[in-house]
Amino acid sequence: MQLTLHSDYSLRVLIYLSQTDKKISTITEISKFYQISKNHLVKVVHKLAQYGFIISTQGKGGGIQLAKKSSEIKVGDVVRKMEPNFNLVECFNEKTNQCVITDVCRLKGVMELGMKAFFNVLDQYTLVDCSTKFQVHKQG
Q1: C-alpha–C-alpha distance, residues 66 and 19, integer Å
Q2: Confidence at residue 140, expressed as pLDDT on a 0 to 100 scale
Q3: What DSSP line would sit under the chain, residue for residue?
Q4: To the nearest 10°, the Cα dihedral for 18, 23, 27, 30?
Q5: What's the whole-number mean pLDDT along residues 39-55?
Q6: Mean of the pLDDT values across residues 112-128?
Q7: Which of 45, 60, 72, 137 can bridge 68 by disulfide, Cβ–Cβ 3.0-4.6 Å?
Q8: How far, in Å, CA of 13 to CA of 25, rounded?
Q9: Distance between CA 56 and CA 50 in Å, rounded?
Q10: Backbone Cα Rg of the chain
Q11: At what angle do helices 5-18 and 38-50 cross, to 10 degrees?
Q12: Cβ-contact 77, 11 below 8 angstroms
């Protein structure tokens, strides 16, 4: 299984914000720090704000910051919200499933157990657990 860049970038943005000690950051500075597309980050930040992980303010002095303490944001919650689906195999999507052995196959149950274990692990970790303090340089 591979997470989308959307989830990857979401976690990176949140980790970055967790390092700023509640100060407001901008998409531009985060984009420069990680050397990733500002256009992608705009979409990621919009979704993070929709789900209540961050607060976004407009105008002069505006920017983004965590909506709650980094110790309260679980990695599993972020991944669940940011991924479009978890269709690990074809039969996970009942609408498009064309697999001819679906009725007799037990693979789906095995994959569901694996995904449950995956999220059980992710749910044990918060943003605090995901990084050591690194130097965030504000652009003046």
Answers
A1: 10
A2: 46
A3: ----HHHHHHHHHHHHHHTTTT--B-HHHHHHHHT--HHHHHHHHHHHHHTTSEEEE-STT-EEEESS-GGG-BHHHHHHHHSS----SGGG-TTT---TTTTT--HHHHHHHHHHHHHHHHTT-BGGGG----PPPPP-
A4: -50
A5: 96
A6: 94
A7: 72
A8: 10
A9: 10
A10: 18
A11: 80
A12: no
Let me know: does 52 contact 45? Beta carbons within 8 Å: no
- Helix 75-82 and helix 5-18, axial crossing angle in degrees, nearest 10: 140
Region 90-113 average pLDDT? 85
10 Å CB burial of residue 53 (0-12, 13-18, 19+) is buried
Tokens of 138: 């504000």
Tokens found for residue 72 = 């309260």
Query: How far is Cα of residue 9 from the mean position of the Cα atoms in its chain?
Result: 7
